[in-house]
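Researcher: Please generate the 3D structure of the following complex. Treat every line as part of one assembly.
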Amino acid sequence: MSIFYKALCLVFPERCPYCGEIVDSESIACADCQKKIDKYRQPIIRGTHGYRCVSSFFYGNRVRRMILRIKYRDRIQFLSQVAKIMTKDIKAVYPDDEFDYVTSVPMHKKDFEHRGYNQAQLLAIEIAKLLNTPYEETLVKVKRTKKQHKLSYKERKTNLKGSFKCIDKEQISGKNILIIDDIVTSGETLGECCKVLSRSKPRLVCCATIATAHHAVNKRAII
Ligand SMILES: [Zn+2]
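Model: Done. Output below.
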């Protein structure tokens, strides 16, 4: 840790996002809150439209708050801690898969401008560093879509159609790709991204997310 960072931590110490307690810079929560988060903690492997996806948490209340903070309150420092947890699970679940690069689910340009960053992209960049693998942009979101969780099952199916496009087919052909998103619920978003990538004939596409929603994980979905 640099002297500058240490000095910064004295002035602005890292705080537990749930109770405000001062925590060290390596933690995502204080010990008490960590215990509560740990209840949701386990790598969950599920199929999402035929592609394997590993998630590090069930989408419980505290995990939801953690993701919301990353998403909407610029608590980007949590990203690097979450990325460490995810990387551990990725290595455990895909031990034999050497990825050529890591990529992420893109946001529409307008949404990106509004928020200022794409949390899935930042997470993927951190994970790529930890895996010692390059990070590459592979997809672009060309259609602004409605939020998936606000739609009916039928609407979810069609909402994303044609919304993602490949940037460069040559870059994907024959490659092992790991794609990152924050949450997987019905799996439509990641499924659509994998489908679009697959048209360019990659060798393998695997997914990883911070969390998976409870209702989406049934016995049939877990592989
Ligand atoms: Zn706490």
